[in-house]
Every structure is written in C-alpha cells, then in structure tokens.
From TrEMBL:
PROSITE patterns: HTH_MARR_1, HTH_MARR_2. Residues 3-133 form the HTH marR-type domain. This is MarR family transcriptional regulator. Pfam families: MarR_2. PANTHER family: CONSERVED PROTEIN (PTHR39515), HTH-TYPE TRANSCRIPTIONAL REGULATOR RV0880 (PTHR39515:SF2). Keywords: DNA-binding, Transcription, Transcription regulation.
Length: 141
C-alpha cells in the first residue's frame, strides 16, 4: 500500500469511527467540543474557541449562547481587555462533559471487547501513541 492510500484509508476509517461513536452523544458536537476545549485548556474567549474549533466566530457564538443558557459555562471580564469576555466551564458543564465522555468511552470499550481478541487489543493499544503523535503534529500541539 502506498503512502497516499494509507493516508486516505486512515482518514476514512477514523472519520467513520468518530461518527459511529458520536451516535450516543446527547449534546450537539459544537457544544461538546467547546466544553472540551474549556475543560482541557482553561478559560478563553469565543474568538479563541472559534479558532481552536476551526469554525466561524458566528458558529462558536451560537454554541456559547446555548452553553450559557444551560448554565454549562459562565463569563467574566477579560483581565487584559475589558471589551472581551472570558468563558469558564462550570461544575455542571464539567459534569455534563464527563457524562458524554463516559458514554462514548463505554460504547467504544464494549465494541473493542466484542470485536477484538486480547492480542488484537494489545496491537490497538500500541497504535494509540502513534495516533496521538500524528494528531499533535497536525494540530501543532
């Protein structure tokens, strides 16, 4: 298999896997993504979220509005620029995000146990650091 074919097969397979796991989600992907960034990276502005998610400011603002209305995020004035607001994940937001993560992980864990032998699960485990390194390269992290 040449490198181009490997890249395309990996892209397609990972995309299908992500979509299959998202079937159990109970919140829109944009809102879950925003909560995830706030949880992992700490407070940020709506513009920062839009940049991180690689979406328009308008799209990020829509997700933020829903999260604010649900009490999953809160705002405070930006310390360096009074015209901006910093978004913080709330305790309720963190709990909701954890439920989403647990649901996804449980679904994936059950499928892994159903589909793979113990030896194949070890092969899969060995691939995780490689995929993480690839993701870090692509995202610049």
């Amino acid at each position: 298999m040449d490198e181009d074919a490997l890249a395309e097969e990996l892209r397609q397979s990972i995309g299908e896997l992500v979509r299959a796991v998202r079937v159990v989600d109970t919140m829109p992907p944009g809102e879950a993504a925003a909560l995830g960034f706030l949880d992992r990276l700490g407070p940020m502005t709506t513009a920062d979220l839009a940049h991180r998610r690689r979406v328009t400011h308008q799209s990020a603002a829509k997700s933020v509005k829903e999260l604010l209305n649900a009490g999953l995020v809160r705002t405070e004035p930006h310390p360096g620029d009074g015209r901006k607001l910093l978004l913080h994940i709330t305790g309720d937001g963190r709990a909701r995000l954890q439920r989403e993560r647990d649901r996804r992980a449980g679904t994936l864990d059950a499928a892994i146990r159903d589909v793979f032998t113990p030896e194949e699960r070890e092969q899969l485990r060995a691939c995780v650091p490689l995929l993480s390194r690839l993701t870090a390269h692509l995202t610049g992290d």
